[in-house]
Automatic annotation (TrEMBL):
PROSITE patterns: GATASE_TYPE_1. It holds the Pfam family GATase_5. Its EC number is 6.3.5.3, 3.5.1.2. PANTHER family: PHOSPHORIBOSYLFORMYLGLYCINAMIDINE SYNTHASE SUBUNIT PURQ (PTHR47552:SF1). This is Phosphoribosylformylglycinamidine synthase subunit PurQ. It is found in: Cytoplasm. It comes from Leucobacter albus. Keywords: ATP-binding, Cytoplasm, Glutamine amidotransferase, Hydrolase, Ligase, Nucleotide-binding, Purine biosynthesis. Part of the FGAM synthase complex composed of 1 PurL, 1 PurQ and 2 PurS subunits. The active site is at C87, H196, E198. Part of the phosphoribosylformylglycinamidine synthase complex involved in the purines biosynthetic pathway. Catalyzes the ATP-dependent conversion of formylglycinamide ribonucleotide (FGAR) and glutamine to yield formylglycinamidine ribonucleotide (FGAM) and glutamate. The FGAM synthase complex is composed of three subunits. PurQ produces an ammonia molecule by converting glutamine to glutamate. PurL transfers the ammonia molecule to FGAR to form FGAM in an ATP-dependent manner. Its main location: cytoplasm. Pathway: Purine metabolism; IMP biosynthesis via de novo pathway; 5-amino-1-(5-phospho-D-ribosyl)imidazole from N(2)-formyl-N(1)-(5-phospho-D-ribosyl)glycinamide: step 1/2. It comes from the Bacteria.
Length: 234
């Protein structure tokens, strides 16, 4: 039986179909979940996709964090289910207090779209175990509210406990403190990041690499890591 990974659709989600395709690309079964439901349909992991949930009213991710299905997701995350939040999904995770800190308007006050270099700072999570510690990868980035903020105390804890999952390399595109691009929780099952791994899974459609244009597939390792983590839980 194939591993089943749920992808939640909220009003305003844009990358839910892309996330489903990434799940399918690694041989798992994508399961479409709806924001207004309370049923996770027995999935093995969950992806909160990118987009502009509820039009980003109040703050990006703030309303989505209160959606009915988030009650079940928070509970499942507390029991160890792998949960990945991508861009708007990362914003949901911090608004739901599954990850600390907050995300605000980019420092330059503009939407940004670029192929972004990242350093993998933690390769032992449910979504990063297929990487090497310190590995540099390239993942597409597109956001207007990607500036990561946190108190000095929180930043010290994140750095001291190894909870920074990804850090921007080469350039800090949005003013995130400590160049933070993504985080993990202490248990390693919840990961959030601003860049979009689901847009780097297939040659011909990913970032440019020295080998060829549009050949970058670094995003595949996120979903392959999830399969390994799920298999280890069974």
């Amino acid at each position: 039986m194939a591993t089943r990974i749920g992808v939640v659709t909220f009003p305003g989600s844009l990358d839910d179909r892309d996330a489903q395709r990434a799940v399918r690309h690694v041989g798992a079964e994508p399961v479409a979940l709806w924001h207004a439901d309370h049923d996770l349909q027995g999935v093995d992991a969950i992806v909160l996709p990118g987009g502009f949930s509820y039009g980003d009213y109040l703050r990006p991710g703030a309303i989505a964090a209160l959606a009915p299905i988030m009650t079940e997701i928070v509970e499942a995350a507390g029991k160890g289910m792998p949960v990945l939040g991508i861009c708007n999904g990362f914003q949901m995770l911090v608004e739901a207090h599954l990850l600390p800190g907050g995300l605000i308007r980019n420092a330059h006050q503009q939407f940004i779209r670029r192929d972004q270099r990242l350093v993998v700072e933690n390769a032992s999570t449910a979504w990063t175990n297929s990487f090497e510690q310190g590995q540099e990868i390239t993942i597409p980035l597109k956001n207007g509210d990607g500036g990561y903020i946190a108190s000095d105390e929180t930043l010290k804890q994140l750095e001291g406990d190894g909870l920074v999952a990804f850090r921007y390399a080469g350039i800090n595109p949005n003013g995130s403190l400590n160049d933070i691009a993504g985080l993990t929780n202490a248990a390693g099952n919840v990961v959030g990041l601003m860049p979009h791994p689901e847009h780097a899974i297939e040659e011909g459609f990913g970032p440019n690499t020295p080998a060829a244009m549009r050949s970058g597939v670094d995003g595949l390792a996120f979903f392959e890591s999830a399969l390994s983590a799920i298999s280890a839980r069974v």
